[in-house]
Write a structure and sequence with these properties.
It contains 15 helices and 21 strands. It has 642 residues and is α+β, with helices and mostly antiparallel strands.
């Protein structure tokens, strides 16, 4: 009998051991015992080398906060250290996750449907046609699913995001009307990250709940999760205003203070602490609940974690609001957030039940991705070597060119910003492989399948949205070659006449030719004055028109250089911050005046040739000047600068 009892106890112990080992494996067979040492070594070095003035980091695992630490000073003048529970940071687009959470809460309540035309929830209409392209009429309606996967097809206005005073950032209901971008792609077909799309989703939350957006999130997400130091109010409410970390940028050996940044609330206006963000991550990792309070059903969370859109089965795409990433064989759901001064990153490993959040000022958007990369390499190193087998295709030359991201303006003057930001250059090397340059770094890609190319370089990611290990060439809805990669961004090939090289070279040649002509005519005028000779009135008038055009062009270039200069603290063009000179309205008139002068110059060119009032060399010179004016007019027209 004693032997039987002993055997039963032994079997029970074995069963418990097996269950315990399986649970441990399910939670993730990892050892975070050195997390503080590891994080300190990496982050303190980053703080010192990159002059990061303040930073807050938290790591959660298996429902517990396993690391939480602040670095630097929330306020340098006051020598106030970062407090994990009370020091608030501006988390930028990480705010979007709260907008998507609110949307899914209302979906659970039956008040919203992800596949319904969003016009059903709005008190104004989103047009049912595209503004550009050959097939403009009646594309399929935009749905909440499109908004959550960044595929609504909206263009993007880079000058409508940041403002430095409350008066310049309109309230949400006014913003979604006044800054409504045009539809430029059919909904559900092209990934193009959209701040406006998220702001619109926030407005839908406001409309359906009949509560101001910030109040809805306060009542239905912050309070249940006990996030007492989080808010969407801009500026911060009085009781929290002293908690916000002062943002700085290190310039010429000292930290310069920045001002509060106003952004469209649901898309990036939230302020929070590392401690509060830990609770948010824990809720998602626990299937929508934290400390007994539920913000979402478990099935809803699992649905949000599943891929909803990708351009290709070899690319990470979009889950519901979360951006997909695959690293070292692990599935990651993440979202980055950037204001002009703050940078943040939130990373979830659902299978391992781990979350990481970091926020800091100082403006280095790569720091949070670098932290996560070394975190993954340290705790989840890849034991699989990736073998790339080139296909040896001969069609790679068709992909050579300049690609502009599809998160851009197509219809207003912001369109020209695509020439200075978000470009990918694709070239062909001697071996027939692609040489791809993004963010100033160049990598070699080899073709492994038709239209699919793999990065042969080793090392960290250079793309803020994904791993940039795979690129796939497809065709966009307008018939252009489209480069797609991981994350919520795509790039369409620009025609040669819209490339940055051609456009800027053209502008430089036009400006130099006008300057040279002005100098040449000035010298000739002095000579004629000395010799007391004169020219026919038609010639004098024609030259006067060209001189007026040249002076206007020089004034335009000088004004753009002054008003469009990059602010040293915010590292953005001043115009993008709403800082414009008093003469700014005049800049919108100058292209029109130059166009009128150009047309009149063209008429004078014909008259001068008919009357042979000039020598052939002078007529050819004036004709060339007129052609350059026509080309300048075309540039104004193409880039919507009127």
């Amino acid at each position: 009998m004693k032997i039987i009892k002993t055997s039963i106890i032994a079997c029970m112990l074995l069963v418990f051991m097996l269950i315990d080992s399986r649970l441990s494996f399910a939670a993730g067979a990892y050892d975070l015992s050195d997390i503080e040492t590891f994080m300190d070594e990496f982050l303190q070095k980053k703080v010192d080398e990159e002059h990061i003035p303040n930073m807050a980091v938290t790591v959660v695992a298996d429902g517990e906060v396993v690391f939480e630490k602040g670095y630097g000073f929330a306020n340098i003048k006051e020598r106030a250290k970062v407090n994990l529970e009370t020091t608030m940071f501006r988390i930028g687009s990480v705010s979007k996750l709260f907008t998507w959470t609110a949307i899914m809460q209302l979906v659970e309540q039956g008040k919203l449907d992800l596949n319904t035309d969003i016009n059903q929830y709005l008190d104004f209409d989103i047009p049912d046609r595209l503004a550009v392209g050959p097939n403009k009429e009646q594309p399929k309606p935009i749905t909440l699913l499109d908004l959550m996967t960044h595929t609504p097809g909206f263009e993007d206005y880079s000058s409508a995001i940041f403002r430095l005073t409350a008066d310049e950032m309109p309230p949400l209901d006014q913003y979604v009307r006044e800054y409504r971008p045009e539809r430029v792609f059919p909904a559900g077909e092209v990934l193009a990250y959209s701040n406006y799309g998220t702001a619109l989703a926030g407005y839908i939350v406001q409309q359906v709940s009949r509560m101001p957006y910030s109040e809805y999130v306060e009542e239905n997400i912050f309070k249940p999760l006990d996030m007492n130091h989080s808010t969407f109010q801009q500026p911060l409410p009085t009781e929290l205003s002293t908690n916000l970390a002062q943002a700085y940028r290190y310039i010429d050996g000292e930290f310069k203070e920045g001002s509060f940044e106003f952004v469209p609330g649901p898309a990036g206006g939230m302020s929070s602490t590392a401690n509060d963000m830990a609770k948010f991550m824990q809720a998602y990792l626990a299937g929508g609940t934290h400390n007994g309070e539920r913000i979402l059903e478990e099935d809803t969370v699992q649905h949000m974690f599943q891929q909803q859109f990708t351009h290709h089965d070899q690319l990470d795409g979009m889950a519901l609001g979360f951006i997909e990433k695959t690293m070292n064989g692990k599935q990651i759901l993440h979202h980055a957030g950037n204001t002009a001064l703050f940078d943040s990153g939130l990373y979830l490993l659902p299978q391992e039940n781990i979350g990481l959040f970091i926020s800091y000022s100082g403006k280095n958007f790569r720091t949070h991705t670098e932290l996560f990369e070394v975190f993954m390499d340290h705790y989840f190193p890849s034991d699989e070597s990736v073998t790339i087998t080139p296909m040896g295709g001969e069609e790679s030359s068709q992909y050579v060119g300049e690609y502009h991201h599809n998160r851009k303006s197509f219809t207003n003057e912001d369109r020209i910003s695509s020439l200075i930001m978000g470009m990918i250059q694709v070239q062909l090397n001697d071996t027939g492989d692609l040489v791809v340059t993004l963010n100033g770094e160049t990598n070699q890609f080899v073709e492994t399948e038709p239209g699919v190319y793999k990065n042969t370089s080793e090392g960290p990611s250079i793309d803020a949205y994904g791993e940039f290990r795979t690129i796939v060439f497809q065709t966009d809805p307008h018939g252009n070659i489209m480069l797609t990669t991981d994350g919520p961004m795509s790039y369409s090939k620009a025609p040669w006449y819209a490339s940055s090289g051609f456009t800027f070279l053209s502008l430089i040649l036009v400006i130099l030719f006008f300057i040279g002509s002005l100098l040449y005519w000035s010298i000739k005028a002095l000579i004629r004055r000395k010799r007391k000779t004169s020219q026919p009135k038609l010639v004098v008038l024609g030259k006067g028109l060209a001189i007026a055009a040249g002076l206007l062009l020089l004034f335009l270039v000088a004004s753009i250089a002054i008003s469009g200069g990059v602010d040293p603290i915010y590292q953005l063009p001043k115009e993008a911050l709403g800082i414009v000179p008093a003469w700014s309205p005049l800049l919108n008139v100058i292209p029109l005046l130059l166009t009128i002068l150009g047309i009149v110059m063209l008429i004078f060119t014909v008259l001068l040739w008919r009357g042979r009032y000039w020598q052939i060399i002078s007529l050819l010179h004036y004709s060339l000047l007129c052609l350059m004016m026509m080309h300048l007019i075309w540039i104004f027209w193409y880039w919507n600068l009127y």
